[in-house]
Design brief:
CATH class of the largest domain: Mainly Alpha
Number of helices: 19
Structural class: mainly alpha
Shape: elongated
Number of domains: 3
Largest sheet: 2 strands, antiparallel
CATH superfamily of the largest domain: Fumarase/aspartase (Central domain)
Bound molecules: arginine
Number of strands: 6
Strand content: under 5%
Length: 459
């Protein structure tokens, strides 16, 4: 049991207490960040004359050695240490002796752990941002190919109006684009260095906190030492952004599951991304999409958990905050896995364009356009709505689509109908005439694709 704080104690820590309190099993995840923070701290201490150049050189060499040996597997991180901070410091002292005992000058584990967590999250935010970029590249490639692939658009999961595959996927493009912007915001807001805040009240050493911040690529030091060690807003913001990413992935997964069902048959998930049944030989199941949908709950759980943990904590540091780690690590790993797998599944997804087209032609998705036809011929919209309602009823009785009726049948319902009605309510016209910004018309879509391609080139 290696601890940093034995001095004022007369008894050994109870074994169960030690285990309950220790965090090494999970905070070893930011071992590299812990060393990186120590390196910057030591450089700053030497610059300020708090350590000699010789002490600095010894400590830096020792830290590099520890990093190297852990990475090569020569040195193992074990639960003999309370946490990763103790592991690094104890090993440093083992290696270089007295100089190692000066590493923790002007520092507390409270500002150290806040720094480690920020460094770790900062790195992961960039990784997730890049993974999302890969997903967006995949989406836009499908969009470019499918500006004239017709499909029904739904409201209430009822066929509403015809759209295109490019348009439908374009909605997800916007969602994941906002997700990336949220990650950028989090990065910027959290990018202030807590190191040098000490346990809560700063330190009496003449630290140059701005210099440490600069060495670690932060925008500057945090401005209140109590807040520096007690703040976990960046964890909450991250988990909120990750929850939103999962919510988007989950909605998309749900649609793929529906589209992949025998009834819809809009898509076919690639064999490499499907699984079978142990009993039913015919089955090919969308398990990956289902798991992504399922894992959303676990990321939401992490957000609820940290919000609840933080709500009653008085200033400044309290051990409750150690609970931020496992759930954050788990949420990050979950999201990274889900985005990567989902991207692969989407890339290999086969779209049954003919089935989608036939489906778009059924279900009266052109009823709004038929009403618009009457409006364009002088019928007030409310009257047109009623006429088309009766027309749809007639079609249902006859088991026909609007454009399958003869002109005589149409005229019996409204004399305003002429031959050009057929052209006006065709699938192509319905979609192509929707040309406002953000609408599915291929010209409008091309412009949006151009804007989003440019966005991808610059972010
Ligand atoms: N393992 C601790 C955590 O994760 C590190 C900070 C410990 N500080 C303390 N005063 N006990 O929060």
């Amino acid at each position: 049991m290696a601890q940093l704080w034995g001095g004022r104690f007369t008894k050994e820590t109870d074994r169960l207490v030690y285990n309950f309190n220790a965090s090494i099993s999970f905070d070893q995840k930011f071992f590299r960040q812990d060393v990186e923070g120590s390196v910057a701290h030591v450089k700053m201490l030497a610059k300020q004359g708090i350590l000699t150049e010789d002490e600095k050189a010894q400590i830096l060499e020792g830290l590099e050695g520890i990093l190297r040996d852990v990475e090569s597997g020569k040195l193992e991180i074990t639960d003999a240490y309370e946490d990763i901070h103790s592991f690094v410091e104890a090993n440093l002292i083992d290696r270089i002796g007295d100089a190692g005992k000066k590493l923790h000058t002007g520092r507390s584990r409270n500002d150290q752990v806040a720094l480690d967590m920020k460094l770790y999250i900062r790195h992961e935010v960039m990784e997730i941002n890049n993974l999302l970029k890969g997903l967006l590249e995949t989406i836009i490639a499908i969009m470019e190919e499918n500006t004239e692939t017709y499909m029904p658009g739904f409201t209430h999961l009822q066929k509403a109006q015809p759209i295109t595959l490019a348009h439908h996927l374009g909605a997800y493009f916007e969602m994941f684009k906002r997700d990336r912007q949220r990650l950028d915001d989090i990065y910027d807001r959290m990018n202030y260095c807590p190191l040098g805040s000490g346990a809560l009240a700063g330190t009496t050493y003449p630290l140059d906190r701005a210099y440490t911040a600069q060495l670690l690529d932060f925008n500057g030091p945090t401005l209140n030492s109590m807040d520096s060690v007690a703040d976990r807003d960046y964890v909450i913001e991250l988990l909120s952004a990750l929850s939103t990413i999962m919510m988007h992935l989950s909605r998309f997964s749900e649609e793929i599951i529906i589209w992949n069902s025998n009834e819809y048959h809009f898509v076919e998930i690639d064999d490499a991304y499907s699984t079978g049944s142990s009993i039913m030989p015919q089955k090919k199941n969308p398990d990956i999409a289902e798991l992504v949908r399922g894992k959303t709950g676990r990321v939401y759980g992490a957000l609820m958990s940290i919000l609840t943990t933080m709500k009653g904590i008085p200033l400044a540091y309290n051990k409750d905050m150690q609970e931020d780690k496992e759930l954050t690590f788990d949420a990050i790993d979950t999201v990274k896995g889900c985005v990567a797998l989902f991207t692969g599944m989407l890339k290999t997804l086969k779209f049954n364009k003919d089935v989608m087209r036939v489906s778009a032609m059924k279900g009266f998705t052109n009823a709004t356009d038929a009403a618009d036809y009457l409006v364009n011929h002088g019928v007030p919209f409310r009257d047109a709505h009623g006429i088309i309602g009766r027309l749809v009823l007639y079609c249902i009785e006859q088991d026909k689509a609007i454009d399958e009726l003869s002109l005589d049948e149409l005229k019996a319902i409204s004399p305003v109908f002429e031959q050009d009605l057929y052209e006006a309510v065709s699938l192509e016209t319905c979609v192509n005439k929707r040309m406002t910004v953000g609408a599915p018309g291929p010209d409008a879509m091309q412009e949006v694709i151009r804007i989003n391609r440019e966005y991808l080139n610059f972010t």
